[in-house]
Amino acid sequence: MIMSSTKFESLILDFPEISKSIEEIESQANNVESQLTPAYTVDRFFERFSLPSSQASAKLLRRLQEIGVLNKVLQIESRAGGGIEEYSSLLDIPEVLYDFRTDQDFVVEPSDIKVMYQLVTEASDQDING
Amino acid sequence: MPGNDNLSQLRSELENIPSSQQITYIQGRLRSIEDDHERALLEDLFLIVTSLSCQKKKLVVVMIHGIRTQGQWQSKLKEELNAEGVEDVHPLPYRFFDLISFWTPIPWLFRIFPINHVLRELRLVQSNHPTAEIVVVAHSFGTYIISNILKKATDIRVKRLLLCGSIVPDSYRWDKLKFVESGNVVNDIGLRDFLPVLAMTSTIGYGATGTLGFKTHLVENRYHDFGHSDFFDRASMRKFWLPFICSGEVVKSPLTAERNSPPWYAVLFSFFPGQLLFMSMAATAAYFYF
User: Fold this and answer.
1) To 5 degrees, how large is the angle CA A54–CA B16–CA B18?
2) Residue B256, min C-alpha distance to chain A (Å)
3) What span, in angstroms and rounded, lies between the C-alpha atoms of B73 and B85?
4) What is the interface size between A and B, counted as CB pairs within 8 Å?
5) Could you tell me the mean pLDDT of each successive run of 10 residues in chain B, 290 residues long?
6) B240 φ, ψ to 5°?
7) Which member of A2, A27, A75, A125 has the lowest number of beta carbons within 10 Å of its beta carbon?
């Protein structure tokens, strides 16, 4: 899938200090052809695209989500290990969740959330839009 | 990630709120922000900062040695890890385990003692570092010990596992272990290491995975031009072990892609697991008796 380069050009203008990272993300987004796009944990995403730990990086991630290049996945993890449920926003997470791995209800805490970012491909975009 | 007042305020407020009530509290704070973009930005900032600070979780490394040794390599690895800033590095020693105890095919007769001892030690490490991520490095009989522990003691939480000179059977059910995902178990194989094959063929309960590898995608087999105890060279530890132990990075060994087939004798012997040896001995004894 070839992402509209104008989307990225405007991002580079808005975030010139991390332009190299944006180019790298653009290149990666254009090269992802499979529906099985990799999901990066936050630290892996920052490392993979050499993003600094700054507000600009967080703002860039927000913009990438708004223009449909990136999906945020909040995976709730069982305390026994392994994912249980996925959400797209903190606002959707219930206070109490059933853990099928331990057969117990538990109160969700911030440390139970694994945050991942996934580049959106044409295929996965079509799925999202039906 | 400094500079956002809303984020600093939220994080400071959370310090006084029990963790079980924090999600509800954060949701309330987010809903109070009317501007959609600002609300989503604060959520992203919070999640990123929380995730990046979780990344700095304390790392504890434990090491389990093989038989007929006190595991001198552990001191070398400890030094290397200390130099990388990993301070909690614990050898989990057990009493000198001789060849006869190793060979005796009844597991509860001898093998169970080091397993139980290391399990007690591991539980102690875990209770002393309840929130730390534990990485296990095991060599030879140490791989047998840790595989038995993980199979039975489901309270043990391991973040990553590094095996070398493995004698764990190829039939081991990695899929049943909760922590195992592709990439967090590495099996370092010595292409000149015949001892795992010998262990498998001479008695029961062991496998030749330190020579032939595991046949599952859940374990990353990494091949080296090593014998059974050649993994403990400092340069090799720095190149292959430290990245995996510290951050989970699996540095590829060129031999993994370019290796030839396993030695013919290793393949040949792998067709004769220990059980067959005992069956043929029993059959021979029965033949002469009757």
Assistant:
1) 100
2) 24
3) 19
4) 85
5) 70 81 92 92 88 69 87 88 84 84 79 92 89 91 95 89 95 85 87 86 86 90 90 89 86 80 71 65 76
6) -105, -35
7) A2
Comparing CA positions, the residue from B51, B26, B107 lying closest to residue A112 is: B51
One-letter amino acid at B143 equals T
Nearest to A89 among B20, B41, B43 (CB): B43
User: B205's torsion region: left (phi>0), alpha (psi -120 to 50) or beta?
Assistant: left
Structure tokens at B281: 């001995």
One-letter amino acid identity for B122?
Answer: L
As a whole number, the mean pLDDT across chain A is 82
pLDDT tens track for B147-180: 999 998 988 889 999 999 999 999 999 988 877 7
Confidence of residue A35 (pLDDT cuts 50, 70, 90): low
Contact residues, A window 79-118, toward B, CB-based 8 Å cutoff:
80-82, 89-91, 93, 95, 101, 107-111, 113-115
Whether the ipTM is more than 0.95: the answer is no
pLDDT band at A126, cuts 50/70/90? very low
Cα distance from A47 to chain B (closest Cα, Å)? 11
